[in-house]
Amino acid sequence: MAIAAMQGFAGLSFFSVLLLMALGLAIIFGQMRVINMAHGEFMVIGAYTTYMLSVQASGMAPWASEYYILLAIPAAFLTAFIAGMVIEVVMIRHLYHRPLDTLLATWGLALIMQQGFRTFFGAREVSPSTPSWLEGSWRPTDMIDIPLNGMAIMLLTLLVTLGVVWLMYRSRWGLRVRATMASRDMSMAVGINTRWVDRLTFALGCGLAGIAGAAFTMISSTGPTSGTLYIVDTFLVVVFGGAGSITGTVVSAFLIAQGQSILEFFLGSSMAKVTTLLVIIGILMLRPEGLFKSKVRR
Amino acid sequence: MSYTLPKILEKRGLPGLLILAFVILVFVPLTMDVDGINLTGRFLSFAFVAVGLSLAWGYGGMLSLGQGLFFGIGGYAMAMYLKLEASTPEATRIQSTPGIPDFMDWNQITALPWFWVPFNSLTFTVLAILILPALVAALIGFALFTRRVTGVFFAIITQALVTIATILVIGQQGYTGGVNGITDLRTLKGWDIHSDSALVTLYYVNGVLLLAVIALGMWVLSTKYGRILMATRDQENRIRFSGYNVAYFKVFIFALSAFMSGIGGAMFTLQVGFMSPSIIGIIPSIEFVIFAAVGGRLSLLGAVYGTLLVTYARNLFAEAYPELWLFLIGGIFIAVVMFAPYGLAGLYEKYVKRRWNAFLASRGWKRPNGSDDDALKSQLMDAKPASEASK
């Protein structure tokens, strides 16, 4: 029972990072049909931003290194957001009518970004200092030991998810995004600046990846190629959930992360991963549109 | 636009194929030493995959990010046979279980696993190389295309498949050699594959097979089947409503591309003497796409030149300036996708061919604007790739 609870919790931490990554992708891929293979690299941008802030903070004052993480999360979002906007202007907007080509071009971008990280930060993996209030764990009983940083990530994920849902489905701006994606011509006719909608939507997705990066630093160290490890998983989460559906993304991230960590307990990590991926592909073959079908007519 | 394509194809091909044959079979062997020939041969074994991708992706519209899977099946089948030949009981006397490959012994496996046993036979191995990749691709294709999985979703699923294969190969060390792969391959039926004469022979075998595969691809594209394939890429529903079962056409071309990749994999193993997961993973699989894209996705011959160009550039740069290499290849890739979607072949059609025709016309040697086909071809190369979003 205690082992099951802890294994379940390990799955929840994985679920949180996966979901944070996938939310950005669900917006970029699900709404805009752009395949951003460099999404993992935007996550790494967020992670390195957090790391740099942590180095700055510990150089400044001891109390600063306790609370830098609160500043790091918005900073990571902002850096990735701005980077995303630049990329959109320079590259992505020329490729909207060729989705498969966005995949190839962003892969080239991912290679360049990886090498950029390696040149600036070195090939060595780095990890920021963890604030002392995030160390340690919560022990409801003697057997169960739940790390605090995992809980912090889950709280962050919850807040971000609620924020995204509000933004996409309750705000004026979200309405404009959905209108643009549903019918671009009509949206332009009613006076929506679709250029800016595209730009901000893409940047928002990248910014969310940046937040995922900040969360990522709390559970793992960051290297130049950390992003590529997650990209296949993240895409599968989005596709499996049904592109364009945030509920679907949450559910599928949960199923994939939990499935994998439960199987890990029985099969070992590599077979668990293989089994999970095979099951997802199997389900996708039976239900190519994913778990939650988007109701938008195309 | 779609109806002009087959017309273009009928005239394309033979001269280009002869030039390529000259480059591969005459030019390279005359100008290079054995190491250079072997290196080129290695690179050309990747070209099999690029040619297959040009068919499946350029003409069929199916972007597969998982061609490494098929390259790997071919390569591993060959490697398993060679490894068994290298692991005679005499050669492996010092192991606790003589007669099985060394990595199995290291992983405390005491008997040859059942799926290794048939690879004792060369006939079986060759058949496996020719059939297995195509069979696997046909199964995957059948499952996906009959469910109308297309475009991006197909790309992501094939990428996941190659991820699975890599994790399996690395995870099941005892059966596959793990991260190191299958190494120390020496002889084929007693013939030392590392000797100079063997390397040159293998290079020629590789070259002839590659030319044969390209000719096969050109032939397929010139048939009615090829036209339906291209029409499917551009307007899938119209072809479906015309009464064709689109899925089977796509399954066939995907299997054909896998067949080509499998041969490439086997030739790679023979020329290099090992096979490892680092050659079939996500990154190499995308590199194959880079080769095809640089060469020109609509040109089977261009795929070969694209492969040679990128691999030679990597060979030069990755040694001299390892930091710059990723910047360079990433930059090339973005530039090709954004500014020259038809790659080298497209640039050739647009700048060289057209000027040449104009020159000929100015001398009164040829009708102005070239033949109808030339005009159509350049018209095509100017056009943007078909919009996938509009489907």
Radius of gyration of chain B: 22 Å
Strand order of the largest sheet of chain A: 1-2
**Approximate helicity band of chain A:** over 70%
Distance between the termini of chain B: 16 Å
In quaternary terms, these chains amount to heterodimer
The portion of residues forming beta strands of chain A comes to under 5%
Would you give an account of this structure?
The complex is a heterodimer of chains A (298) and B (391). Chain A has 298 residues and is an all-alpha fold. Chain A has eleven helices and two strands. Chain A has helices at residues 2-32, 39-60, 64-90, 99-121, 148-169, 172-182, 184-189, 194-219, 226-241, 246-267, 269-286; strands spanning 137-138, 146-147. In chain A, a hairpin with a 7-residue loop joins strand 1 (137-138) and strand 2 (146-147). Chain A is globular, with a radius of gyration of 19 Å. In chain A, strands 1-2 form a two-stranded antiparallel sheet. Chain A has a single domain (2-122, 146-286), classed as ABC transporter involved in vitamin B12 uptake, BtuC. The longest helix of chain A is centred in the first third of the chain and has 31 residues, at 2-32. Chain B has one domain. Chain B has 17 helices and two strands. Chain B has helices at 4-11, 14-31, 34-59, 67-86, 102-106, 122-145, 151-171, 173-176, 196-222, 224-234, 236-241, 246-272, 282-295, 300-320, 322-339, 343-362, 372-382; strands at 187-188, 191-192. Chain B has a two-stranded antiparallel sheet. Chain B is 72% helix and 1% strand. Chain B has 391 residues and is mostly helical. In chain B, helix 3 packs antiparallel against helix 12 (246-272), helix 3 (34-59) crosses helix 14 and helix 4 runs antiparallel to helix 6 (122-145). At the A-B interface, helix 4, helix 9 and helix 11 of A face helix 7, helix 13 and helix 15 of B.
